[in-house]
């Protein structure tokens, strides 16, 4: 952490770790790698949600673990291969356009979509089926 407090123009400090993309140099590899992520990393956006990631690998892991799994429709027996398919199904079959945190049936908002699904199943499933 001490490397973060060293001014870049201090000539008597060894800075062997050079950034391949700009003129900055750092005393440790960790400091250089932190610089690369903070300054030069492209923010890879998930096409299925608003999340962004510093690397393509992290984005792909997110998609694999969050979106590429079966999603049960809370209103019928359909199992969709991923969240995007469930969203399309909800719109096409149930005429519900849902957001990431807002309940499509009431003004309630939730920190996660799991919390929202739980709320929908507990509070609105009977209302929808009536």
Notable traits:
130 residues, Double Stranded RNA Binding Domain, two-stranded antiparallel ribbon, two-stranded antiparallel sheet, 5 helices, Zinc finger and BTB domain-containing protein 32-like isoform X2, Znf_C2H2_sf
Structure explained in plain terms:
- The protein is mainly alpha-helical.
- It has a domain at 69-129: 2-Layer Sandwich (Double Stranded RNA Binding Domain), CATH 3.30.160.
- The chain is 40% helix and 9% strand.
- The chain is built from five helices and six strands; from the N terminus they run ββαββαββααα.
- The chain has helices spanning 29-40, 56-67, 83-94, 113-123, 125-129, and strands at residues 17-18, 25-26, 44-45, 52-53, 71-72, 79-80.
- A hairpin with a 6-residue loop joins strand 5 (71-72) and strand 6.
- The model has no long low-confidence stretch (mean pLDDT 77).
Quickly describe the structure:
It comes from Acanthaster planci (Crown-of-thorns starfish). This protein is mainly alpha-helical and 130 residues long.
Topology:
Elements: E1 17-18, E2 25-26, H1 29-40, E3 44-45, E4 52-53, H2 56-67, E5 71-72, E6 79-80, H3 83-94, H4 113-123, H5 125-129
Antiparallel strand pairs: 1-2, 3-4, 5-6
Strand order in the largest sheet = 1-2
| Rounded Rg | 23 Å
Look up the CATH topology of the domain at 69-129: Double Stranded RNA Binding Domain
The structure class reads mainly alpha
Measured between the Cα atoms of the first and last residue, the distance is 61 Å
| Outline | elongated
Q: Provide the residue-averaged pLDDT.
A: 77
- Helix fraction? 40-55%
Helix and strand element order: EEHEEHEEHHH
Question: Would you identify the regions where 5 or more consecutive residues have pLDDT less than 50?
Answer: none
């Amino acid at each position: 952490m001490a490397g973060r407090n060293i001014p870049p123009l201090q000539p008597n400090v060894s800075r062997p770790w050079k950034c391949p993309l700009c003129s900055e140099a750092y005393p440790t590899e960790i400091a250089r790698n932190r610089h690369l992520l903070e300054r030069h990393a492209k923010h890879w956006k998930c096409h299925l949600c608003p999340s962004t990631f510093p690397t393509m690998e992290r984005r792909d892991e997110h998609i694999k673990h969050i979106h590429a799994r079966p999603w049960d429709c809370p209103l019928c027996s359909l199992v969709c291969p991923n969240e995007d398919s469930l969203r399309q199904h909800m719109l096409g079959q149930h005429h519900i356009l849902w957001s990431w945190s807002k309940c499509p049936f009431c003004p309630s908002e939730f920190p996660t979509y799991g919390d929202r699904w739980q709320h929908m199943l507990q509070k609105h499933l009977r209302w929808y089926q009536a």
